[in-house]
Amino acid sequence: MTAGLNQIYEDYLFNFEKVEEFYNYDPRLNESFVNRNSYLQNNYQQNRDNITKILKDYNQELDCNQKTLENIELLKKGDAGAVVTGQQAGILTGPLYTIYKAITAILLAKKASRITNTDVVPIFWVASEDHDFEEINHINLINTDNKLDTIKIEGDYIGTSIGDININDKAFDLIDSLVAQTYDTDFKDKIISELYELAKDADDLAEWFSRIILELFNEYGLIIFDPMWPEIRKLSVGIYKDIIKNQESLTEKLQETNQELQQLDYSLQINKDQDNSHLFVYLNGERNSLLINDQKFYTRNQKLVADQSEILKKIEDEPTAFSPNVVLRPIVQNYLLPTVAYVGGPGEISYHSQLKELYSIFDLQMPILYPRESITIIESRLANYMEKYDIRREDIIKQNLDQKLEKELAKRDELNISETFGDIKDSFTEEYKNLINEISKIDQNLNKLGRNNLERIIGQVEYLEDKTEQFHKRNSQTLVRQFNKMENNLLPFNNLQERVFNIFPYLIKYDYDLIDDLVDYFNLDFEHRFFYYRGDDEDDS
Fold first, then answer.
1. 446, 260, 451, 253: which is closest to 366 by C-alpha?
2. Using N-to-C axis directions, what is the helix angle for 308-317 and 237-245, rounded to 10°?
3. Taking every annotated instance into account, which residue ranges of this chain make up the domain Bacillithiol biosynthesis BshC C-terminal coiled-coil (predicted)?
4. Pairing of strands 120-127, 81-88
C-alpha cells in the first residue's frame, strides 16, 4: 500500500521515530527548543542591529503599534529568537488557516520563551514574491442566500509577484461584493470602513495583506517580514551566491533524500526537474524560473542566458532581481532570521522532509517545525444540528455527512424504499429470465432481444426508485436543509472549513472579539479540534 501524500505528516505528528532521520528536532520535546536556541546563539550570522533596523523601518511604514516595535527591539539581544510562520498574501488574508498560523506563532513564541528563558518573538513572513494570482485573488463565504459563494479580484497577472500588483479599483469592488454578500450587523460598517482605509494606505496587494494582518493582531506584537523589501534582498546576496555555486550538491542531495523517502513508501511533496536552479529571476517585472544546463543559466523564454560568473555579478548588482523557489525559501528564511521554530501546515512540514540535507550545504540547520493549530468553527445553530443528529469529530474529518444524511433518511423511510425496490427488481429479473429461456426455444434471436428488453425495464424501475427517493427527501425537507447547512458551513466544497473560508465574514458577524477568543482557545494541540462559538438562533424546525 502506497503512503498517502500526507502520510509523512501523520507520522511526524504521532510516530516521530519513523521520520526523525529527515528532521532535526522533535516538536513535542522541550529540549528541542533549548537545543535549537543554543544552536542559534552559536551559529546565527546576521548582524542583529542591521536586521532589526530593517524590520523596524518596514513595520513602521505599515503603521504597526508599540508592541510590535518592542518585539523587534528584543531581537537585538544575542540570545533572542523568533517563531516564524508565513503564507501567500491572499486577498483579505486568504483562508482561515492563515489566521490560525499567526495565532499558533504568537502562542508558540510565548511557550518557547518560557522554555528557554530567553526572548522569542513571533514573525509573519509574507510570501509576496509568489506569482500565482489565481490562487490568492478570491475568498469563499456563505452568502445572504445561505449558499456557498466566491468573490474575487479580476485581472490578468501571469508571472507577476503579488507584491508587484498595485492596488486598484478592483480591490474596492471586492470589498463592495463582501458588503453585498454578508448580512448587516452592528460591526459591519466599522470593519468594512477599516478594510477600505487599509486598502487606500497600501501600494500593492501584499502590503494590503500585511496591513490587515497587523490590524488583526496589533495587540500581540506580531512582526511582519516581507522578503521583497529591497533591504532584505540586499541581505540575501550571500545566500543567493552560494545557491548558484552549489548547484551540483543541491541536485545530488535532493535526489538522494527523495530516493530514501520513496523507498520508505512516502510520496514526494515537491519534485523539481534537475535543471531547476531553485531561484527565480525577474525580467521586465515577470518572475521566471532560472534553469541550469551544462554550466549555463537560462530562462525558458531564453531572455536570459548567462554563465556562472555573469549570474553572480547580476546577483551582486541587482539583488532585487532574484528570489528563491519553494525548495530554498525555507533555507533563505533561516539564513536571514534567528528561527527557533517555523509554524507550518501539513504540506509544508511534509516537504521539509526533503530539505534537511540541503541546509548543511549552507552551514545551516533545519529549525523546529511546529504544526499550525487546526480547528473547525462551529456556531451554536450548527452545534444544535450536530447534537440532534449525533455528528461527531470523525464525521467531519472523514467527510461522512452524506452517509449520516442517508442514515437519517432511512430512519424516516417507512416503505424501506431501497429494499422494496430491490426485492421487486430481483423477483422480476428472475421471472423474466425464466421467460427469456422459454422464448429462446422458439428462436435464439429472442434471447438477446429479451435481455436488452430486461435491461430497459429494470432501468425504468430504477428511474421510478430514484424519483421515489427524491419525493421522500422532499418530504424530509427540514432534515435535508439542516444537513446542507452543516455541509456548506463545516465541509465547504468537500474540504475542511479552514482551507476554504475567510475570516472576515465571521468578523462581520462577531467583531474582532473572535480573534481574542481564538487566541484564548488555541492550546498548541496537534489534533484537529472543534471550536464551539456563539451564533445566531435561526430556527429551521
1. 253
2. 170
3. 375-529
4. parallel
Contact between 109 and 120 under an 8 Å Cβ cutoff? The reply is yes
pTM greater than 0.70: yes
Nearest to 158 by CA among 136, 127, 133: 133
pLDDT tens-digit profile of 413-430? 767 788 889 989 999 889
CATH architecture classification, 7-162+205-237+324-374 = 3-Layer(aba) Sandwich (3.40)
State the cell numbers at 535: 451564533
Q: How far apart are CA 182 and CA 382, in angstroms?
A: 18
Q: Which of 124, 112, 13, 42 is nearest to 365 (CA)?
A: 42
Find out whether 95 and 502 touch, Cβ atoms under 8 Å.
Answer: yes
Q: Is the pLDDT of residue 202 over 90?
A: yes
3-state secondary structure of 150: strand
| Calpha distance 496→435 (Å, rounded) | 53
Letter string b/e over residues 108-145, b meaning 16 or more CB atoms within 10 A of that residue's CB:
bbebbbebbebbbbbbbbbbbbbbebeebbbbbbbbee
Paired residues of 290 in beta bridges: 279
Strands (E), 372-472: 375-379
Which residue, among 77, 66, 24, has the nearest Cα to 342 in the 3D structure? 24
The H or E element that residue 530 is part of is strand 529-533
Around 459, how many Cα atoms within 13 Å sit in the side-chain half-sphere? 6
Report d(CA 209, CA 537) in Å as an integer: 33
State yes or no: pLDDT of 3 exceeds 70. no
Q: Which of 295, 255, 256, 288 is nearest to 273 (CA)?
A: 255
- The letter for the amino acid at 418 is S
Kindly report, residue by residue over 115-135, the tens digit of the pLDDT.
999 999 999 999 999 999 999
Query: Can you tell me whether residue 370 is helix, strand or coil?
Result: strand
Q: What's 103-146 look like in SS3? A: HHHHHHHHHHHHHHCCCEEEEEEEECCCCCHHHHCEEEEECCCC
Q: How far apart are CA 10 and CA 145, in angstroms?
A: 38
Q: What is the DSSP letter of 182?
A: S
User: What confidence score (pLDDT) does residue 536 get?
Assistant: 52
Using CA of residue 200, residue 201, residue 207, residue 208, what is the dihedral sign?
negative
The phi, psi pair for 496, rounded to 5°, reads -60, 140
Whether 392 has a pLDDT exceeding 70, the answer reads: yes
DSSP-assigned letters across all residues of 223-282: EEE-TTSHHHHHHTHHHHHHHHHTHHHHHHHHHHHHHHHHHTTPPPS----TTEEEEEEE
User: Considering only 109-113, 153-157, 244-248, 529-533, which range has the smallest mean pLDDT?
Assistant: 153-157
Amino acid occupying residue 263: Q
Structure confidence at residue 475 (pLDDT)? 66
Query: Can you count the helices (H) and strands (E) in the chain?
Result: 24, 14
